[in-house]
Amino acid sequence: MADLNNQFLWFELLTQNSARAEKFYRNVIGWRTDVWEGGAVPYTLLIADDDVIGGMITLPKGARKQGALPHWLGYVCVNDVDASTDQAQQLGASLLFPATDIPEVGRFSVINDPQGAGIALYTPLADAPPANTAPQRGRMIWHELVTTDPDAAWNFYHELFDWNRTDAIQTEQQGTYQMFGTGGRTLGGIIAKPADMPGPSAWLYYTTVDSLDAALTRVAANGGRVLNGPMEVPGGDVVAQCMDPQDAIFALHQIRPA
Description:
Layout: E1 8-15, H1 18-28, E2 32-36, E3 43-48, E4 51-58, H2 61-65, E5 71-77, H3 81-90, E6 94-102, E7 106-112, E8 118-124, E9 140-147, H4 150-161, E10 164-171, E11 175-182, E12 185-192, E13 202-208, H5 212-221, E14 225-232, E15 238-243, E16 249-254
Parallel strand pairs: 1-4, 5-8, 9-12, 13-16
Antiparallel strand pairs: 1-5, 2-3, 3-4, 6-7, 7-8, 9-13, 10-11, 11-12, 14-15, 15-16
């Protein structure tokens, strides 16, 4: 499992109406679904081609009462969830969900980083699937942190996951877009949260589609909204940030058009 350490392995949508969300993402991205019956509450698996890439669950009532909104949650592989959770708290994170076993799956916890962005720590069983290594349709390939303090956030994640700085891009309005990676792979980027952007610091996950224009048409046709884009990024790929009908933010990515 060493080659999976400190990489994103799982993506989970916490939403108010799972059936509605399932229909939206099936129509927009093409994910198939299946029901996982190994837990105490209903859980829907998200499947791209033959790969299970994540899951979907109804946002708990308790979380909703505390103000939690529908959102995507990324799971990062670590050697020891309990040790990494303790380390995260020592680095200033707050604990949202303590380290817990998922029978026959693994062990996980959920934290808010010091700037308030939620992320999960995950130790899977030995037969965990490999991390994504190249853009493929329906897979989440880019992981972007929009945060109130990019420097402090970088220090936190570098200490926790041993991520390394890779490339950096200077933007006019948000300063440095600092990319990060591990094991020779660039995983994503960290950038300052715009002053007019609502909500706390947050992670945003990019899913690869065959045609971004066609996918954005499907977003609108199925009740979602395009928040930003389409726009070209360095290297020639095109991306857009969107919101689903229940206000969970997600992003779409298309490999550089031929």
